[in-house]
């Protein structure tokens, strides 16, 4: 049996949608929203009617009958920490997306919009592997400061999708493998996947771990404290140094690794050293996760936009390839990953989880 799905992935100034028949994309659209349109609403939740209308209008323009859908799937938002999986949208889940229990973010609208459209046509609504997926071992939460436990906030949707893909393609199954998954995009997350659970991972949302195109990574704590109380910066300005303006942005004034590689080609020694430092830090994080898995690593998986670069992937192989074999799944196909999560439930491969 085939399943037809509408996928909704809201961003701060866009809403990406796709219609899938099983894993085949029928069409995809990125619906752009101007700053003026978004500014009309005093909260993210208040945008739901506007965004829903835009989605339904595009589907109508494409002559797509929403009554042919078997389910609607939304990007998960800033919920309470939860194990990975596909979740049925429930009233409790909707309420926590509305209030944003871990923060206000456009992705909170994913479950809300999917539910509103699904209710109209009498089909189920789901979310899949939101950024707050938390499967950490208790010992991984220790930071050294009881008030500051380590948190699991990372590229859960893509990490889980590529890990399951490798499990399927290897014929071994995700639940039977120990994997280290490295997502390299605007942020970098390195996760230790132990037989289907991400037992340790850096908090990529707040910039922990290796530095990345837009995030500072783990910085010297004492110096950070002094910076915060120097009187030179506001809280917002300090945070932007860590998330948004950190990493490549801070050193090379670009958030694009391709620009750094171009600078190297043009003879920049500074860019060459910056690139080497990036590979060095990612390699260190891979090594750390190998110790989490007690050296029993079946495969390292590289993913995210930066994984398109053979220069990057070859450099990582040179530094960390001795730990395990390396498989590369470049990019981040979020719409497909959301579709696959729903298909696993609709086909009976998995049960929908309840929030």
TrEMBL record:
Gene3D superfamilies named among the record's database cross-references: 3.30.420.40
Highest taxon listed in the record's lineage: Bacteria
UniProt-listed PROSITE patterns: ACETATE_KINASE_1, ACETATE_KINASE_2
Chief localization: cytoplasm
UniProt xrefs under Pfam families: Acetate_kinase (PF00871)
Name of protein: Probable butyrate kinase
Record keywords: ATP-binding, Cytoplasm, Kinase, Nucleotide-binding, Transferase
InterPro entries reported for this sequence: Aliphatic_acid_kin_short-chain (IPR000890), Aliphatic_acid_kinase_CS (IPR023865), ATPase_NBD (IPR043129), Butyrate_kin (IPR011245)
Catalytic reaction equation(s): butanoate + ATP = butanoyl phosphate + ADP
Compartment annotation: Cytoplasm
Top-level EC class as recorded in UniProt: transferase
GO molecular function: acetate kinase activity; ATP binding; butyrate kinase activity
Family the UniProt entry places it in: Belongs to the acetokinase family.
GO BP terms: acetate metabolic process
EC number: 2.7.2.7
A GO term from the CC aspect: cytoplasm
